[in-house]
Amino acid sequence: MSLLRVQTLSKEFGGVHAIEDLDFAVNPGTIHSIIGPNGAGKTTLFNLITGLYRPSSGRVLFDGADVTGVKPSRLAALGISRTFQNLQIFFNMTAIENVMVGHHLHLDHRFLPSLFRLPAVARADRALKERSAELMEFVGIGDCVGAEASELPYGALKRLEIARALAAKPRLLLLDEPAAGLNPTEARAIDAMIQKVAASGVTVVLVEHDMKMVMGISDHILVLDYGRKLAEGTPVEVRANPLVVEAYLGVGA
């Protein structure tokens, strides 16, 4: 059974169709990329899947359950995490504190144990910090554990946001342009890290303009054009599709 399924999904803004009658499915354990020209509706689709927008019509199913319009906090508890095209980092915190925030769904929120700093709470805090440091090492920024978030270079901040998303222990991770703004060396390192995330058992849905990345790591690709499905298939199938070539390069190409 598909982990994520979108059925006849549509979203209108003032009569303009940002997403129109979209159907696709994402299988567990895969890297599924969503591509398309600027304005194709990719980020809008992410916002619909993660509950930031309510669809005009259609459904979003996660592990067979209808989660259409469910609040982002509830979706996170169910196992859906995401990153954003524009970095959402707490710059007034340390790097490791940013990752620790991602663990909040799995913490003991009872008032009295926290108030009196019971031994169990102190042990949990130490374990939380250790797990956060391990995640930072996992994404390749283990040397930044003691750094302030405001001191990190842009490429490390991209990885930090992914580490924080992984701290929520997702089954499905949505990455919105993780290679945007990176140089070629940094982008190839992100390639390897995303494959590492997928190999750990987390299903990845990726929006990205870096076609070298998309073609190199994707199991399946969905191509959008003005909110509608233009094509989908393996990287080989999508690369050879004349409709995709036309959408990206123009008829003359």
- What's the name of the CATH homologous superfamily of the domain at 4-79 and 170-249? P-loop containing nucleotide triphosphate hydrolases
Helix content: 25-40%
CATH topology of the domain at 4-79 and 170-249: Rossmann fold
Q: Name the CATH architecture of the domain at 4-79 and 170-249.
A: 3-Layer(aba) Sandwich
The shape is: globular
Explain briefly what this protein structure is.
The protein is an alpha/beta fold.
Description:
- By secondary structure, this protein is an alpha/beta fold.
- The protein has a domain at 4-79 and 170-249: 3-Layer(aba) Sandwich (Rossmann fold).
- 38% of the residues lie in helices and 23% in strands.
- It contains 10 helices and 10 strands.
- It has helices spanning 42-49, 72-78, 95-101, 111-115, 119-138, 154-167, 184-199, 211-217, 235-239, 242-249, and strands spanning 4-13, 16-26, 31-35, 57-62, 65-66, 80-82, 172-176, 203-207, 220-225, 228-233.
- The chain has a 6-stranded mixed β-sheet with strand order 6-7-8-3-9-10, with helices on both faces. A 4-stranded antiparallel β-sheet has the order 2-1-4-5, covered by helices on one side.
- Strand 4 and strand 5 (65-66) form a beta hairpin.
- Helix 3 (95-101) crosses helix 5 (119-138) and helix 5 (119-138) packs across helix 6 (154-167).
- The radius of gyration is 19 Å and the shape is globular.
- The termini are far apart.
- The model has no long low-confidence stretch (mean pLDDT 89).
